[in-house]
Amino acid sequence: MKKFLLYLQLDGMDCGPTCLRMIAQKFGKSYTLQHLRELMHVGKFGVTMLDICEAAEQIGLRAQGAKVEWQDLIDIPLPVIVHWDSKHFVVVYRIKKKRKGEFNIYIADPSIGFAIYSKDEFLNHWICKNSNEQEGYLIAFETTPSFFIENKKEKFHYSYLLNYLYPYKKYIFQVFLGMTTGVIISVLMPFLTQAIVDYGIGTGDVSFIVIILIAQLALSFGKTMNELIRNWLMLHITARFSIALISDFLIKLMKLPISFFDAKLIGDILQRIDDHGRIQTFLTGTMISMLFAIFTFIIYTFMMASYHGGILLSFIVGSAIYILWVLMFLKKRRAIDHVRFREAAANQNSMVQLITGMQEIKLNGCEKQKRWMWEKIQVRLFNASVKGMTLQQNQQIGATMINELKNIVVSYLAARAVIGGDMTLGMMVAIQYIIAQLNVPIDQFINFIQSAQDAKISIERLGEIHQKEDEESQDSGLIYEIPPAKEITIKDLSFRYDGPHSPKVLENINLVVPAGKTTAIVGGSGSGKTTLIKILLGFYEPEKGEVLIDNQKLQRYSPHSWRMACGVVMQEGVIFSDTLKKNICILNDNPDEELYSKAIQTANLQEFINKLPYRDKTNIGIDGHGLSSGQKQRVLIARSVYKDPGYIFLDEATNSLDANNELIIMENLNRFFKNKTVVIVAHRLSTVKNADQIIVMDSGKIIESGTHNQLIATKGAYYKLVKNQLDLGN
């Protein structure tokens, strides 16, 4: 067993980065403690499991935090980092089972060094003493291709993808061993068949025939068991490979800016997820099979040469013509595949719209129109499939004719050799078996070429996404410490969505959002209010001008850290399919009960929770208890309050609330807003009238600013908005 290298922490709060340093060293890469400390942003309170996971992903390790029981721990691949005494991190690098169900757990503790614990001793440290649960926290790790490459911007191609197979090299070796065994068994078969015909039948020795048949039966049974074990190994490899590949794709998606998702249809992204299946099939199935097909082909070629060189030559010539015929169709296959991808993406997109938009479809009575639209896509998809099928049939007809002609020529030459006395009948039967076995690698080679082409197309499509710049670059010198509740300054800001020829959504915006004060933004629909909020959140880069946080450009701050410091409720906020409590405490598996209670009270949710069948453990969202628009907004408000942020952005956060709930929640929020920098976008007078300053926008420009009383006194645009609202009220 490879020796586990120990590192000791230098400071009291260095246990997290030191543990990760040991994990990285175990997998084959060395990092300085200082580098890992910077990735985790170690402060005076140390680091969390989330900090360790995020740092691990930045160096190319896939990290998964979990709360598990002892039985799960002994099944998880080691090493893992475990939470120790509820305040420390250590590495478990070995678990040794002793007699009578006892275990020795080998620990690398960055504060004291190596240690060995019994099961009971280990559980006393690992499982939280303040709870009745029998579970502890750990972080498990797995390598990704980026862990092994020096240049993190290396292109997404075959050599990069092969690194995904590295963690399973032991299983792949076992698969190769199984395939080698299968080839050896197959090679013995023609000799046994020849022996039956030439010696058993030729001499009339029934006992000899029975012995050979028993041997064939034993070999066939061994071959079947070998294939069974090999298939289980391949299932293990392909399942984990597929999860790792798609997981990294999702990690990459989550690192991309919001503007990427604005430019992509849902169907396009879903189809790219399907593309991973092609790559997985090629790398874990077709490619491995092809390696042994080559091995098999070489062995049977030498066997055939020992029987009859002329037959071998005719087989090779016929196979070469067969392969060239198939290769002629590759270019057309590629073109049809692109068309099929485009139509399949449109089909996915259409189906998502049909299902998610069913309420609007029924309200507007457009069931037929929407179904017809979907059917038109099916016609185009069918036409693409017909073209693909036609091409496949043309290829198949020619390939079959060439293959059959080749086999007929081989049979003729073999029969003629038997008649001429150059070979025995048993040799002819053996040759027929060998030819059948040689045809298998040829077919696998054709399948390999087509699968490689499909995988190459998929790699190109996925490479487009993997090569995009992340929203947050590791090496860009970003600031991760966000100053709490400071002033936000917007200088001469302009923005447009779709390039230089599209209309400006925001134009020459100059605004100061005072620290610890509330700023309300009002205006008609399409005036740019929500866009301004999204720019303040760092979702979009302004075309001109800048946003300053405490006199520091917004772009200098880590987007992730900035949004973590912000409590946000957007118009299109999402409720996930999970319990109500987890929807509010969305970031924490072990939530802060005091913050949670405060969030529930602020959003006036307690009465609603009491009516739920399982209270705050009731599932809500798509797969659970349905929520009204007002209830949804209250959950979103509670989610933003739970973060206890220094900056708050509310975009029409109360427009679906009834008057009573709005009054209570706004009073609670106004108390919560104390000493926080707040920006509110709203239409309702009750929401904005108490703001420290009110900004009025129209057509992407600021046309008025002041307090409620000041703007009413000027009788401008704000006055008209208020007057219209009051008139509507009357």
How would you describe this structure in keywords?
730 residues, alpha+beta, Cathepsin B, Chain A, ABC transporter transmembrane region fold, Rossmann fold, 3 domains, six-stranded antiparallel beta sheet, 26 helices, 18 strands
Task: Provide a compact summary of the structure.
By secondary structure, the chain is an alpha+beta fold. A six-stranded antiparallel sheet has the order 1-6-2-3-4-5, with helices on both faces. Strands 12-15-16-9-17-18 form a six-stranded mixed sheet, with helices on both faces.
List the helices and strands and how they pair.
Layout: H1 15-27, H2 33-40, H3 49-58, E1 61-69, H4 70-73, E2 80-84, E3 88-97, E4 103-109, E5 113-118, H5 119-126, E6 135-143, H6 145-148, H7 158-162, H8 169-203, H9 206-255, H10 258-263, H11 266-307, H12 309-327, H13 330-356, H14 358-364, H15 367-419, H16 425-466, E7 488-495, E8 506-513, E9 518-523, H17 529-536, E10 544-549, E11 552-553, H18 559-564, E12 566-569, E13 578-579, H19 580-584, H20 593-602, H21 606-611, E14 619-620, H22 629-642, E15 647-651, H23 659-672, E16 677-681, H24 685-688, E17 693-698, E18 701-706, H25 708-714, H26 717-729
Parallel strand pairs: 9-16, 9-17, 12-15, 15-16
Antiparallel strand pairs: 1-6, 2-3, 2-6, 3-4, 4-5, 7-8, 7-10, 10-11, 13-14, 17-18
Helix pairs in contact: 1-2, 8-9, 8-11, 8-16, 9-11, 11-12, 11-13, 11-16, 12-15, 12-16, 13-15, 13-16, 15-16, 20-22, 25-26
